[in-house]
Amino acid sequence: MVIASIVMELGIVWLERAAWIAAWIAAILPMLIASIPSSKLTSFHQLVLGFAGRGKILHLSSQKWTVPQKYFAHFYVVGAAWTTLLLATTWMYACKTAPSSSEEFHLSDIACHLTGGSHVFSFHKSHLTPVEHRFKVWRAVFLLVLMEIQVLRRLIESFYVFKYSPSARLHILGYLVGLFFYTVAPLSLCVNVAPEVARFAASLMAEFIAKGKGHTSAPEFDILSALSPLMKLGWCQLIGGVIFLWGWLHQRRCHAILGSLRENPSQAKEYIIPHGDWFEIVSSPHYLAEIVLYLGLLIASGGTEITIWLLHGFVVGNLTLAAGETHRWYLRKFENYPANRNAIFPYVY
């Protein structure tokens, strides 16, 4: 019975993992096909661009099925709420499995994770040593902390930095894809611990329902125990975190530049060539910065999770398509547009 239970649980974990992988592949595949340079795929390419259109790069043929571009804020409301819930629950669970103050992650165990180790394809904590399991849980906490920093800043920017034109629209399919992304992306960052975290949350909820608020034991919280394990992660997490913050800071600067172009209401429908920061080398530096910060998340994850690879692949594909259209729009709009700027990748594209 015990063996059958373990096999069934492993099967459920694999099915959940397969579902997330299939969802990301389904989102990436149309962009991948549209990027193939073939005249036979021109119609499909235009169809994908029409669905992905927003603001100035929205095709006229797609205007019927649109919502206001200011609905971008909905992505970050959903993303912030969902990431906060996942982070809080995963952090509480991590504190239950955290090392004592005298116990640290052993260098040999960390090295095993950094190099892939013998447990790269193990998806159940019974296959891991206690130290390896704790490392995996705290790594998920670290990734969710970075994601929380990103979505909270984007939420603030959507209300206080960006001033969308009243006529700016967003294709309804692009709107739904955005909601999909900010729901699935945070979960992909902790998918390897999600089943056990879900069981932990369910047990807390069951205890609350059974005993009531007055008889439920409050989770013990020690700020040192809650933070110190994050300081003992590996080099991948340190390097990934630095790359994430590098991209995060440049995206903040580029968004501030874009927001400053429409500080006055009279500029609501006026387009100006942006200058400063990475705008001097590419047309969509805010997209490049987003690719960089998600690369940081990928590196911080250790590169052993296929769902995070697919997450980054989706970000690269989606933003590269949008940046290409934006670059072509700038070239059509401004005769004096800087010739040295590429679309999104300096000196490449």
Throw out a few tags for this protein.
349 residues, mainly alpha, 2 strands, 3 domains
Task: Give the helix/strand layout.
Blueprint (H helix, E strand, L loop, with lengths): L1 H33 L7 H11 L13 E3 L3 H26 L9 H8 L15 H31 L8 E3 H18 L4 H18 L11 H5 L7 H26 L24 H16 L5 H28 L16
Antiparallel strand pairs: 1-2
Helix pairs in contact: 1-2, 1-11, 3-5, 3-6, 5-9, 9-10, 10-11
Instruction: Give me the number of helical elements.
Output: 11
**Global shape:** globular
Residue share in β-strands: under 5%
Ranges with pLDDT <50 over ≥5 residues? Answer: 100-126
The number of E-state strands comes to 2
Question: What percent of residues adopt helix (DSSP H or I)?
Answer: 55-70%
- The biggest beta sheet, please? 2 strands, antiparallel
- Structural class per helix/strand content? mainly alpha
Overall mean pLDDT stands at 81
Task: Kindly provide the radius of gyration, computed on alpha-carbon positions and rounded to a whole number of angstroms.
Answer: 22 Å
Summed up, the domain count is: 3
Major sheet: arrangement of strands: 1-2
Give, in order, the helices and strands. Answer: HHEHHHEHHHHHH
Termini, distance in Å?
A: 58 Å
Domain 3-oxo-5-alpha-steroid 4-dehydrogenase C-terminal: 235-349
Pathway: Protein modification; protein glycosylation
Main location: membrane
Keywords: Membrane, Transmembrane, Transmembrane helix
